[in-house]
């Protein structure tokens, strides 16, 4: 079989290497420049590739096309493939054909990375033969080459789900559905929601779908009457059908044969959104047979991914938290809601059409200072000018941190939670978060 792979990033090169080991005739094409690390892998495996162009004739001579998730279905080369009835699939769909491992798949607009990392941590600490893959930044296909794992915990974006057809998860998790990437879905929430729900496709009664019963968009889109798997709703708001929920600090799982009560008192995760993330991960762990006490021990040792409500310093009784990944209003809402101390809030960047009104009540209650970090801060100043007592602005993250330190009193939290994209002053949210951490380190060293 001839396989053409479009995109030579992590997923594309991983799929190419797997295809080569399975005896397929594979060709890799990337319209952009290919990173040296990926060129080296392709060259080592003697896989032909091109960069800076798509040779249409060669690509359309394939029996099947695997495209990287960043390439939209509207791309001309994909449209040509569809006209010729050439199947277009994702890396996950392709990789799953070559393993008997079971898949635990996690998606959602927000929270999927934390939930994926926590789920993996709980299962690995319980001794399961499990690996991590997908949107987290690791190629599933490349890991399938060795085929040494019994389970994969896979983070899935909607873009990955769009080109998955026969794939089936053993356990699927849907955290939430809020407007995002709607340009890829004709500005249709219905189409975007349908993409997310593909995580639960092809399920049978022996498979489990954990979903947020408090999310209105999930409730609207999920057709429970025609669902073939076992539904496992989780809820913080007392949903009657919930099988995973909080009782005080305990998470209760009530699914028959998998019951459990897990104390989360020693978890370091902050905020309401992390209660949802923890419910989902604990629910998966119970379905995988992990004992309550083993889950509790693992919750204590979990460290979240960088830039997600990450504690990065403590000096003069002031806590510094890096939440640079919070690039939308909803993510900031969860950060403000979850922190109980007075907050000095560093926000700003490239506005994404934000409506800040939902943050007004929390800001009035908790934020004592707003430091606007960006080239254009007018929208932030207008939104919070009559709500937050002190507003300052700067284009220097070092100054933002120094100013926050000077205005903070013991017990305060200095929170970087921008609500905006980073591209006016930084390369990306990781760069912004790293620069914040470096600025905080200077403060901590002087304490």
Automatic annotation (TrEMBL):
Annotated localization: Cytoplasm
Pathway connected to this protein: Cell wall biogenesis; peptidoglycan biosynthesis
Species of the source: Pontibacter oryzae
Family designation: Belongs to the MurCDEF family.
GO terms classed as biological process: cell division; cell wall organization; peptidoglycan biosynthetic process; regulation of cell shape
GO molecular function: ATP binding; tetrahydrofolylpolyglutamate synthase activity; UDP-N-acetylmuramoylalanine-D-glutamate ligase activity
One Pfam family of this chain: Mur_ligase_C
InterPro entries: Folylpolyglutamate_synth_CS, Mur-like_cat_sf, Mur_ligase_C, Mur_ligase_C_dom_sf, Mur_ligase_cen, MurD
GO cellular component: cytoplasm
Binding residue positions for ATP: 108-114
Any coiled-coil regions, as ranges: none
Protein name per the record: UDP-N-acetylmuramoylalanine--D-glutamate ligase
Domain Mur ligase C-terminal: 307-420
